Input
Amino acid sequence: MLVVMKDHASSGDIQHIVDLLTEAGAEAHLSRGEIKTIIGVIGDREVIYTLDFEGMPGVEQVIRVLKPFKLVSRDFQSEDTVVTVRGSAIGGGAFGVIAGPCSIESEEQMMTTARAVKAAGATMLRGGAYKPRSSPYAFQGMGVEGLKLLRQAGDAVELPVVTEVLDVRDAETVAQYADILQVGARNMQNFMMLDELGTMKRPVLLKRGLSATIEELLSAAEYVLKGGNRDVILCERGIRTFETYTRNTLDLGAVAALKSLTHLPVIADPSHAGGRRELVAPMSRASIAAGADGLMIEVHPDPERARCDGPQSLTPADFEALMADLGPRLALERKLLGVTG
Amino acid sequence: MLVVMKDHASSGDIQHIVDLLTEAGAEAHLSRGEIKTIIGVIGDREVIYTLDFEGMPGVEQVIRVLKPFKLVSRDFQSEDTVVTVRGSAIGGGAFGVIAGPCSIESEEQMMTTARAVKAAGATMLRGGAYKPRSSPYAFQGMGVEGLKLLRQAGDAVELPVVTEVLDVRDAETVAQYADILQVGARNMQNFMMLDELGTMKRPVLLKRGLSATIEELLSAAEYVLKGGNRDVILCERGIRTFETYTRNTLDLGAVAALKSLTHLPVIADPSHAGGRRELVAPMSRASIAAGADGLMIEVHPDPERARCDGPQSLTPADFEALMADLGPRLALERKLLGVTG
Amino acid sequence: MLVVMKDHASSGDIQHIVDLLTEAGAEAHLSRGEIKTIIGVIGDREVIYTLDFEGMPGVEQVIRVLKPFKLVSRDFQSEDTVVTVRGSAIGGGAFGVIAGPCSIESEEQMMTTARAVKAAGATMLRGGAYKPRSSPYAFQGMGVEGLKLLRQAGDAVELPVVTEVLDVRDAETVAQYADILQVGARNMQNFMMLDELGTMKRPVLLKRGLSATIEELLSAAEYVLKGGNRDVILCERGIRTFETYTRNTLDLGAVAALKSLTHLPVIADPSHAGGRRELVAPMSRASIAAGADGLMIEVHPDPERARCDGPQSLTPADFEALMADLGPRLALERKLLGVTG
Amino acid sequence: MLVVMKDHASSGDIQHIVDLLTEAGAEAHLSRGEIKTIIGVIGDREVIYTLDFEGMPGVEQVIRVLKPFKLVSRDFQSEDTVVTVRGSAIGGGAFGVIAGPCSIESEEQMMTTARAVKAAGATMLRGGAYKPRSSPYAFQGMGVEGLKLLRQAGDAVELPVVTEVLDVRDAETVAQYADILQVGARNMQNFMMLDELGTMKRPVLLKRGLSATIEELLSAAEYVLKGGNRDVILCERGIRTFETYTRNTLDLGAVAALKSLTHLPVIADPSHAGGRRELVAPMSRASIAAGADGLMIEVHPDPERARCDGPQSLTPADFEALMADLGPRLALERKLLGVTG
Output
C-alpha cells in the first residue's frame, strides 16, 4: 500500500499515519520529495486490508499495490486449473462448449435440445430452472421440476449439466441434480452465496457482474476458493455501457487479461453479451481467438416460442453450423499455441 | 408493445407475427408505410411480457411502451406513500435523516454515535452487522451480536433502526432487531430476497444497483409490492461510470425522475456516492434541492479508526454542522413547494 | 510519479529505471519491501510528463501523483476567478444565468426570447449559430446571419451574449459578435481550438465532454490558460452512462469537486443533461445547492416549433417561474455560505 | 418515426401532433389502443429529421425508426467498399495492416520502423505528426517536419502512409504528404472537419469516439460521404467504461455489427484499446475472428524511449512474431468465409 500525502503535508500528519501503521503491526517506508511525501506500507495482506487512510488529515490518495486476491492468481499457482466433471474438462487446453436453452420449458424441449447439441459437439448441457427476471411479471422458471428434466436430458445424452443457483437456500437442492453450479451476473457479489458454494463439492461457474471490474470478479472467485472449493470457471458475459445496439458489450480484453492474471479457466457467453442471434457466431470466433477456454451458447429448438431470450438463441441447425465453423479454428489455435489439449 | 418490421418486410413475415399475437390472445394493429410496417400490440401486461419477437424473421426492433411495473407507479397511486416506523416518517413531505456508522463495531461506538446523531436531529439510526466486502480478506461485520448493539442503541435514544439483510436466510433474524430492512446495491436484483421481503411486515429500504437503470430499480421495488409489502423506500447511492475522482456518480436526475414516476419515497446516500467526506455536505444539499425525501449519512465517532468507509464518514461534529446547515434549506424547500410536512 | 515494480522484480530491472530517470534529470527514491519495490520520482512537471515507464521490464504500474494541470488549480491560485463581461459577472459569489434558445432561428425569435429572459432576471443571452448535429440531415444553424441576430438582441436588452465556436476557422468571426466563446462538449479535447482560444481576448465557456473525466476537463482548461487567456468558465452538462431515461447524467459531484480543485467558475447546464423539460427546475435547484456559480438554460418562445432541443426548452413563462423559485434559494445560499456577492 | 402518446392522451393533444405533421408535409397513421395511441409518421428523411415532438403535450416518447444515415448503410449499397491507395487495399476481403509509431520522432526512428514493418508484412505505414494530448505539458508532435519524414519513409519502403489531421486548418497540408487522412477519436464529432474531408480526394480513416455509439460513428461517416468522398475506413479503438485494468474496452461486437450495417471497411486498433503491450496479440487475433478488415498497430524501435504510448508499442521483433501468428489465421478466415481476397 502507498499513502500519497498532499503537497506540503505537515510532519505531524505524516507522523500520525506512521504511528497508526506501527500500531497495526505494519512497516512504514518514507519517501520524501520537496513537494510530496509518499509512505510505502509493508505488511500482511490481512492487516493491510483492515487499514484505511483515505480521508485522513494530510492524505491525498491511498494506492493498494497488493491485489485483494491471492488464491486465484497466477503468482500463487502458475499452472492452469482444469475443471473436470464426468470426464468433460474445461481449462488447460481443453475447450468446453456449454449449450442449451435459456430456460427449461418441457421434457420434449430439453430432450430435443440435448440430442442436438450433443450431436453437434457440445461438451456440457445447460438450462435454467430458476430465472432472474427484471420484471416480476415475466416467466420465473420451472423450479425443481425443471432440474429433473435437465438431469434426465443430460443423462440420456451423457453430458454433464450446468444450471444456475438463484437462491442460496436452493444450493443443496440444485447440487443434487447439477454437475456445475452457475452464479449469475446479478449474484456475482452475493458474498453469502459465494461463501456457501465455497464449502460445496460442485464446481462453480461464476459470471461477471454487469458492471464488475476484472479485480472484483477475481475477488468474488477468491471467496469460493477461500472456502475450500478450487473448481471455479469464470465467465465473461458482457458489461453494461452506453452502447444500445448490442445488449451489453462483450469485453474480450478482459478474457485475455484474466488468462494472464489467473489460473482459473475463462469462458465467454456471446449469447447474452450481444443479445442478437447474428452476433453469436462472430463473437464465438473472437472469444476463441482471444484465448477463451470455452463458450456458453443458448440453443432452443424453436426460438420464436422460447419463453426467454429467444432473440439470441440459435436453432439446432444454427448451432451445428457454428460448431462446424469453430472446429478448424480450435485446431489452428491449438497448433499455433502449441497446446496439446 | 410495438413491433417495428425491417424495411420492406415480406407480408408473410408480417402475417406470421400477427398470427402469433392472435394465438397469445393479444390484438394487432397494423400501420403500413411505404418502407416500414409497424405492428401495435394491445393486450394484458402479463400476456405482453411473455411475448418476445426480437430476432424473428422480418423483425427489426421491439419496443415496449407498457412499463414493466405497475404497483409502484404514480399512475396506479397518485398520492405519496409515507413510510412510518415508531412515529418516524419518510415521504409525503416528511424528510428523514438516517445516520450512523457503516459497520457496527462495539457497544461504545454505537451508543456514542446514537446519542450524537439523535442530538443533531437524525430521525433514524443505521449500522451494518453484515458487510458486503469485495475482498474476502476485509472485515465482514459482527453479525447477530451487532444487531443487538444496534437495537440497544436505537432504544436508548428512541430512534428506529435500519440495517442491511445480506443473506436471505437471515431475513427473519434481522427483522427481530431492525425496524427497516435494507437491501444493498449488490442485492438489488436478488429477486429471491425481494420476494421474501415482500411477504414480511417490515418496510424495505432498496438501494439502486451500481449499474441499474431507473426502470430496473422500479421493477425491483415492484417485486416487493407484488408480495404484499407496500412500504418501500428507494435509495439513490451513485452509479458506476468512467469517472474515477469520485467513487461513484450520484445521479440526482434519477431522484427527480423517480419522484415523478413513483409514489414511493426516494432518498439519497451522498456518503457512498462520492466516497469523499468533503462531498457529503454539498451532495446532501443538492439531494434536498432535487426533491429527495431523505438522506442516509455515515457518521462515526472516530473515522480514522473505522473498520469500513472511514474516508467518507463524518464525525459527530461534522454531522451536527451539516444538520444545522440543512435545517433552513429544508424549511425553504417546504415553503416554496407548499408542503406542510 | 511512483513506479511500482512487479513482485520480486530483478535488481537489474530496478536499476534500469533508476538509470533512465537519472538520464532524464529526475531523482529516484527507492522504497524496497520484501515483495515489492516502489520508486518515487521527483522532478519538474515538464520532465515527468515526458517519461513513460509503463510496459517496461519489471514495471507493474506507474502512478502520477503530480496532476497534469497547474494554472487552473487552487494550489496555484486560491482566490476565485471572476469572469466579467459588460458588467455581468460569474464566479466569486456572483451567480450567472445564461438563457436563450438552442439555435438562433429568426429575428423575432431572438428578440422575444431576449426580452423575456432579461425581464425574468437572466444575466447573459445565449443562442447557437453553428449547431453540432449527429446527423448531417439535421438543421445546422444560421451561421454569421445568426451571430448578427444574437448580437442585435443582446444589445437591445443590454445582455452580454454567449455562442459556440464550432470550427476553429470561425473563431475570429464569432469573437466579433460574441462576448463569451463557448466550446461544446464534442470539442472539449479539440486541442488546436483550445490553443487558439488561449491567445484571444474573449472569455471561454468550456463544456465537459460526454465521457471526459474531471481531470481531463481541467487539463483542457489548462490549454487555454497556458495560452494566456485566464477567463475560463467550466460547464458540467451531463455525462454519458448506461441510463437511458435521462439523455445524460448530470454529475453534480463533479461540480462540488471542481469547486475545490480549481479557482475557475463552474456552471451547470440542466437542459442538456436531462433532455427533459420537467427535470430542468429540480436540476437547477440542485446545481445551486451543489455550489455551482451559474446555470445555462434553454428558453424558446415556442418549444414545439423549435428547430433543436424543443423537448428540453422552457417557455418564457416556465423560465420566469423558475427564476422566481431560484431567487430565495440563491439568497439563502449566500446567507449560509457567508458570500457577499 | 413513431410518436407514442401518454396513457389516455386527450384527443386534442393527438390532433395537435397530427396537424403539425400535416403542416410539415408528413403523413400520420394512427394506431389507437384502449390505453395508448401511437402515431406512425411517414415522410422524407430530411423532413422527419427536422421534426421533434418530444416534450410536447401528451407525448410520452418519440422513436425514430429511420436511421439517421443512409449513404453508409448496406441497404443503400450492398457490396463492400474497397479503399485502395497506391495499390494497397482494405475491405472486400483485402486485409490491411497499418503499422508504425504513435508519434514521429526522427528520421532514423521512421526509417527503421518502416523497414521493419514492411519486412514483416504491413500494408501501410502510420505515424503521428500532430498529437492530441490531454495535458498541454506533454509532447505535441513534430508537425510538418514529421509529415516529411513519414512521406520519405513510406516512399523508401513503398508503403502508403496514414496520419492524423488534428486541426482542420492543416487538412490541405497533411493531404500533400499523406495517402490516408486519419480523424482521431476526439474529433469524431468535429463536424466541420468531417465536412471539409468530405470534399477532399483522400480516403479518410475515422476512429470511433471514446463514448460514441455505433449509430453516431455511422452518422459521422455519413458527413464525409455526403460531401462526396466515398472512401471511408471505420476504426474501433476501444470505448470508455468503468473498467480500469485496460485503458479502454475494445468493442468487437461493434465490429461485427458494423460489418452488417455498413459497406465501409472496418478495422480495429488493439494498441490503443488495451493500452498494454501483452494484449495486442490476443486482441489482434480476436479482431480478425470478429470480421475486421484490418488492424492498426503501434510499433516502435525502442518503446522504452518512445515519446508517446510506449507501454502499448510493439518492438519490430514483437511485430514480426505477431504477423507470423496472424498469417495462418487470415488464411483460415478466408477459406472458411469463402473470400477470395
User: Anything to note?
Assistant: DSSP finds eleven helices and 14 strands in chain C.
